[in-house]
Amino acid sequence: MLRGIDTVTAGMVADEGWQTILANDLAQLDTPGYKSETPVIGSFETLLVARTGQDAGQVGSQSGGAAIVATTTDWTEGALQETGNPLDVALQGPGFFAVQTPQGVRYTRAGDFSLDAAGNLVTPQGYLVLSTAGTPLKAGTNAQIAPDGTLSSSAGSTGKIGVFSPALTGLVDTGGGIYQATGAVPATTGATLTPGALEASNVQAPEVLAAMIQVLRHFQAGQQFVSEDKSTIDRFIQEAS
Length: 241
What we know:
Blueprint: H1 2-27, E1 37-43, H2 44-52, H3 56-59, E2 66-73, E3 80-82, E4 89-92, E5 96-101, E6 104-108, E7 114-115, E8 121-122, E9 128-129, E10 144-145, E11 150-153, E12 156-160, E13 163-164, E14 172-173, E15 178-180, E16 192-195, E17 197-199, H4 205-240
Antiparallel strand pairs: 1-2, 3-17, 4-16, 5-6, 5-9, 5-13, 6-15, 7-8, 10-11, 11-12, 14-15
Helix pairs in contact: 1-4
């Protein structure tokens, strides 16, 4: 009986984690270039092995319950949305923009750029957008981006926006569609740039909402099971005393 409660409780914890992932996807519905996440459900033992570095024999049988052991990213392209903004640029095909953050170079599909007070091309977070040479880009008045990625202004062209191809399996989402890469990251020539447009998030709101309802119902069923089992245990204790 107690083992059954442990198993169901582990499932409820997994449900909470899944709801968090779904809620984050929904919150990023309007974030350009954002890619949705899907939880990978495994056993509680698998999660312990992954987190502790021990093998299955060392961990032993801790629980028969489920757990979120990882997440996978849906790299499907989002729809193309025209904005008319001369510093917006959409990526179609493989690749990511490189941006300089306080933690180092990171990668994103979001092309909603602007100029900061110093004339640097930046993301909404203030990260510097990097050129094909890996250097910051700067522009003057009347700045715009050409289809080949060249940033130009009244002061002339200042370089091309870099598009790079980090290994998708090595990317770690650091939040809001900004990714950390592992290993060497080469430039790519397989992407198409569309100025005056953005790649929309690939989150499908109806599917996310339906999944949230399903997970909620599963959680509620677990709550009912635990409540009924607790009542049974309480009754046994009263009868035995």
